Structures are given as structure tokens and as C-alpha cells.
Amino acid sequence: MISVDEALSHLFALSPPREAELVPLRAAAGRVLAKPVSALRDQPPFAASTMDGYALGSSHAHPGAVLNVVGEAAAGHRWEGRLGTGEALRIFTGAPLPPGADRVIIQEDVTRSSSQLTLNSDLESGTHIRPAGADFKAGHEVSAPRRLGPSDVALLAAMGIGEVWVTCQPTVAIIATGDELVMPGEAPGPDQITASNIFGLAALAEAEGAKARILPIARDTEASLKSAFSLAKDADLIVTVGGASVGDHDLVGAVAQAQGMERAFYKIAMRPGKPLMAGRMGEAVMLGLPGNPVSAMVCGHIFMLPMLRAMMGLGAMAPSYQEARLGTDLPANGRRAHYMRARVTNGTVTPAASQDSALLSVLADANALLVRQAHAPAALAGETVQILPI
Ligand SMILES: Nc1nc2c(c(=O)[nH]1)N[C@H]1C(S)=C(S)[C@@H](COP(=O)(O)OP(=O)(O)OC[C@H]3O[C@@H](n4cnc5c(N)ncnc54)[C@H](O)[C@@H]3O)O[C@H]1N2
Ligand code: MOO
């Protein structure tokens, strides 16, 4: 059995970044920027009024001053000219400021009569001018790699960028294995159950930005598993679920190897997740997860998601563990790192009463995994522990 960290290193070695593709900005949200992008010009490109009012030279901006309104500037329509002594310009929010003006008086602070403008006795302070380049200057860079969120997409649009290079989305083929399984909605036989974790794994992969495909359930025969692998071979990542352990019907490893899988490792010191396996299979990576519903999902968080992030160009990063206060005493841990289903409330984490790796209702109630390292000594309530929000 290798450690979780060793398993992750093997998996990262199997998961180089995918190539990049050029997509319209509208399709870029959630994708990973593959090449840095630079602003084409300053934003705003000109000094602009931030209010509706009157632009003037600040030497005139005193209560009771009387000025002559010589024209008008609106957003998208500059006034061509230069303000002289005693002159003011009607100006609206977003309009370019004319030369000769360095202050805008809001319209609430003036009295206007025809072209004559009188400043009121109480003037709001501030210039109400946004200088050219206040947001960013031409050449301002958004660096890569970076997962593009809504604010990034808005920034890129403001930078004038219509298309961006993003890493291609990894494709994931998910294969449930087992004679006992039927799809949700199908009528199970008396000895059968519904395939469940494959739907959770597909959702996890998609939420991370991958394209997931659930293949037909493979039965516990060489022929059925072989045909499932052949359907999956164009994927970047082939995820099998079940058939990973040591029973007579656990054929996944043997069939995968007969299909050319070069095994990187088998079995890890982790609970749940012990019979994890992985290797290269042609152009794809094969990740063989244990069948127990929670084991597969926990391995999805700890291994599949970091692999997908690496394939998307985000680097070889372990999951982002955080710290929390332990809400209850825990006994010493055994030789496998334990990823306990737990709830974190106000910074205090409490493990679920049952850690049976088949209980999806417990997983669905959990909002974190509480990580106990292999051979961790007993821990007392109040100690700081590692968690992974899920
Ligand atoms: N003698 C030993 N037995 C087992 C060991 C061991 O070390 N020695 N390891 C145990 C551990 S730990 C795990 S985890 C399981 C994993 O076994 P498999 O990966 O071979 O999984 P299966 O036997 O196919 O299934 C286990 C369990 O999960 C159900 N299952 C399978 N696939 C799905 C699915 N897609 N959706 C929902 N449920 C699924 C299946 O019906 C079984 O109940 O092995 C232990 N045994
Ligand atoms: O490791 Mo198994 O994955 O305990 O249930």
C-alpha cells in the first residue's frame, strides 16, 4: 500500500495538461486561461465624468460663481473644444472631460437659467472625475493559468478581448461494473441495487469543468469489461467503479492490464479507498475506484479532481485542506489515513456517527472530510485538525 501523497504523485505524472483551444469570450467562463492576455488600451481610455452635472476649471468652483454653459458632452459623444475662463460644459456620467476642465459639479449643486449657471452655496467635495487608465492601463496582464470566473470574464471584456486561449476540457468516461447494478429508474431484481456513485462522479467532474460521459454498466465478465474499455478509449480519463478488490469477481485490474493498461500502483493506505488503482491505458489514464458508493466519491474528491485540475493546466496541487477545531475526542488512527465524513459548523468539525463506506445518506449530510493521518495519535476535542470542505 502506498500513501495518499505517493498515489497523487503517480496520478499527476499520468495527467499532463491538455492542449489549448481558442474560444469566444462568451464561452470562456469556468475554463482555465492557457495564455496570458494583455489589455489593448487604457480603461477608461479618457478622463471621464463620474456624475451628471457641469464640467469646469476648479478655480471657478466656489459658491455663487456664475459661468456660461458653452456646450454638452454625453457618454459616447465628446464635446470638441477647450473650456475657457468663466465657461462650463453640461456633462453626463461617462462622458469624456474636455481640456480646461478638472472638476465636475453635480447638477443638484447648481442653478441653471438658460445658458447661465450659478453654483449653489454648498458644493459637494470631490472632482467627480475618473482619470484615464484608472481601472487598468494598456498592457495590463491577466496571467495564466487561471480559472476564469464571472469577474475575470467581465475584466477581459473591458480589456477588449473577444477570444481567449483556454485549456481543452478533459473528457471523462465513467464505467460502473457489477452484475448487481441497474440504472436509476430501472426495476432492480431481488439481488440488485441501483448504480449511484457514477452519477455523483459525473457531477463532480462536470462541476470542475470536465466533460463526463456515463457508459453502459459493465458486467462482471471479461467480455463486458473489454467492450466497456473499448467504448471509453477516446477519453482522457477512464474511471471505473467497483471490481477493484480481491474477490473472484473483481476483474477490473486484470482486464484493464490485458487491454494494455500499464499499472502505476494498486492499493493505497487510505480509508475509504484502499483498492484504488491507476495506470496509463493507450492515450488515456485509467483510474480504478472502489465500488462502495462513498469510497468512490471520496476518491473522486481526493484523486479525480486534482487529476482533472492538472489536465486543465492548473498544476499538480493536492486538494486544498483547511483547518478546523475538533468537536469531539477521537481514538488513535490505524495504518490507513482516514477521510471521515463530517460536518463543520462555525469552525468546529464533528465526524458522522457511522463511517461505513456504503452510506450515501451520511455523505450527503456531510459538508467536509475530516482527515486523520495514518497512525495519528488520539485527538482531543478542541485540537486543530485538517478538513477538506466538500
Ligand atoms: N478480502 C477483502 N475484501 C475486501 C477488501 C480487502 O482488502 N480484502 N477491501 C474492501 C474494501 S476497502 C472495499 S472499498 C471494497 C471494494 O471492492 P470493489 O472495488 O471490488 O467493489 P465491488 O465489490 O464491486 O463493490 C463494493 C460494493 O459497492 C457496491 N457498488 C459497486 N459499484 C457500485 C455503483 N456504481 N453504485 C453503487 N454501488 C456500487 C457493490 O454492490 C458492493 O456492495 O472491497 C472490500 N472487500
Ligand atoms: O476502503 Mo474501502 O474503500 O473502506 O470502503
UniProtKB/TrEMBL annotation:
Query: Can you tell which superkingdom this protein's organism belongs to?
Result: Bacteria
GO terms (BP aspect): Mo-molybdopterin cofactor biosynthetic process
What functional role does this protein have?
Catalyzes the insertion of molybdate into adenylated molybdopterin with the concomitant release of AMP.
InterPro entries named among the record's database cross-references = MoaB/Mog-like_dom_sf, MoaB/Mog_dom, MoeA-like, MoeA_C_domain_IV, MoeA_C_domain_IV_sf, MoeA_linker/N, MoeA_linker/N_sf
What is this enzyme's EC? 2.10.1.1
Q: Cite the source lineage.
A: Bacteria, Pseudomonadati, Pseudomonadota, Alphaproteobacteria, Rhodobacterales
List the pathway annotation.
Cofactor biosynthesis; molybdopterin biosynthesis
The record ties this protein, via NCBIfam families, to: Glp_gephyrin (NF045515)
Which family does this protein fall into?
Belongs to the MoeA family.
Q: Which SMART domains match?
A: MoCF_biosynth
This entry's Gene Ontology molecular function terms read: metal ion binding; molybdopterin molybdotransferase activity
Q: Which reaction does it catalyse?
A: adenylyl-molybdopterin + molybdate = Mo-molybdopterin + AMP + H(+)
Asked if the keyword Metal-binding belongs to this entry, the reply reads yes
- Taking every annotated instance into account, which residue ranges of this chain make up the domain MoaB/Mog? 173-310
Needed co-factor(s): Mg(2+)
Instruction: Write down what this protein is called.
Output: Molybdopterin molybdenumtransferase
Pfam families on file: MoCF_biosynth, MoeA_C, MoeA_N
Asked if the record carries the keyword Isomerase, the reply is no
Record GO cellular component, one term: cytosol
SUPFAM superfamilies registered for this protein in UniProt = MoeA C-terminal domain-like (SSF63867), MoeA N-terminal region -like (SSF63882), Molybdenum cofactor biosynthesis proteins (SSF53218)
Assigned keywords, A-Z: Magnesium, Metal-binding, Molybdenum, Molybdenum cofactor biosynthesis, Transferase
